Amino acid sequence: MLGLQASIGVTTDTAAAASPVVQEKTLSIMEMILGGGTGNVIIISVLFVMLGVALYIYFERLFAIKAASEVDKTFMFKIRDCIASGRLDAAKMICVQTNTPVARLIEKGVSRIGKPLEDINKAIENAGTLEVYQLEKNTAILATIAGAGPMIGFLGTVVGMIMSFHEMASAGGQAEMGALAGGIYTAMATTVAGLIVGIIAYVGYNHLVVKTDKIVHLMEANAVEFLDLLNEPL
To answer: What are the extents of the domains in the chain?
Structure first.
């Protein structure tokens, strides 16, 4: 009986020693970039450059738009008081010191006081167009990256599949899975990278559009208030 138990113990120990230890394998970013060959490295490098450009444009425009949206709530009251008392130079000085898109629009209108209301309105509209152009500076590049990123990723997908089918053709249709892995790896890795770049750029672009629209509405509201002020009887 003791001999049987000893035999079972030896067998169990032998099986435990023979069983392989399963180790979890992780994939780093560098392995993902370098693991698919030269084509994979080139395409993902291009996508990383695009991602860097997209992030730079997003944060640069975000801070610029945030600074442009900071308007003193008493600004129009000060302008109203200056115009009512005929102190146009003081009104221009307030606009210069404020230095925001809204202030620059009002400054353009103040400088046209004395001319027909239609001319004043036209001057404000032209100034508003220039201000919107400055607010939207480089956002078109962000939109381009949002569309081009996934397309470049899909280009990598096509290149990877071509590599896989080339291996199959070279092996007479009998290629092993290991030979096809490089092409499939390139196809999947570039697709993921392209989608990440596209999603980040797309979300960033739309966020900037929303922020810009708020400032445009703010400029329009203040321009209307200014024109109404000129129509009020003194």
So the answer is: 37-231
